[in-house]
Amino acid sequence: MRLFQAIFLFLSISGCLPSDGHLTALSALPPGVPCAGGGSGACFFRNAPVRLAKEARHLPSRSLPFFPTIEPLLFVDGARRNWEAPVGTLTDGASIPILFVPLLGNPRSSQFLNAGTLHDAYCGVGNEAGLRFHGDTWQNVHIMFYDALTVAGVPKTKAQIMFSAVWLGGPRWEEAGRGLEQVPEQVLVQAFQSVQAYIESDSPEFAELLRFLEE
């Protein structure tokens, strides 16, 4: 379970502390970009950047501190679905899987914080009693994470690699037998290496990447 407890997102609190004493993500966000997850509209944030309380909370068995949102963070995808990280959503940023750190590195940038907080609201540890927890399929939640990364200006290759690690090692629900708890860690590492090499060499479109991940 160590691997699966570590995956819930790919960002860490950057430590930027504005003069008002609250942690925030980057404020300069594009007004909207095409969504990989489907629909004809553009994706965009509402009420961004996310605002987090400066008082940390500590959860058992987790090394990083968690911070609750003090305002809701909203995101609209291309199908006009509304996603929300309600007030009180806990996020530790995100620690990538320990086994993936040597392959990807440990991104620590406020550029990832909006996407990570939204993702945490739907499947992050500490939010199991939250209003949005498991409020959509695991596939849609992970795809939303990718769209939110791209809206925040994360380059395509980086966003695809981060998304792939969440898809391969992140939480899954609703589908019996599709969890990864029994998959050997070395198999996951090899799968991630294969996907990363494919992304970097072929620069696939998102639909092509999804097909590769399913295989």
Share of residues in helices: 25-40%
H/E series:
HEEEEEEEEHHHHHH
Shape: globular
Tell me the strand order in the biggest sheet: 2-3-6-7
Radius of gyration: 16 Å
Catalogue the unreliable spans: 1-22
Average pLDDT level: 80
Major beta sheet, specifics?
Answer: 4 strands, antiparallel
Number-wise, the strands total 8
In what range is the share of β-strand residues?
5-15%
Counting DSSP H or I runs of 4 or more residues, the number of helices is 7
Distance between the termini: 24 Å
Q: Helix- and strand-based class? A: alpha+beta
Top keywords for this entry?
11% strand, two-stranded antiparallel ribbon, single chain, four-stranded antiparallel sheet, alpha+beta, disordered N terminus, 215 residues
Structure characterization notes:
The structure is a single chain. With 215 residues, this protein is α+β, with helices and mostly antiparallel strands. Helices cover 34% and strands 11% of the residues. The protein has seven helices and eight strands. The chain has helices at residues 2-5, 101-104, 113-123, 138-151, 156-169, 185-202, 206-214, and strands at 23-24, 33-34, 42-46, 51-52, 67-68, 73-76, 82-85, 90-91. The chain has a four-stranded antiparallel beta sheet with strand order 2-3-6-7, with helices on one face. The protein has a two-stranded antiparallel sheet with strand order 1-4. The chain has a two-stranded antiparallel sheet with strand order 5-8. Helix 3 runs antiparallel to helix 4 (138-151) and helix 5 (156-169) runs antiparallel to helix 6 (185-202). It is globular and about 40 Å long. The two termini are 24 Å apart.
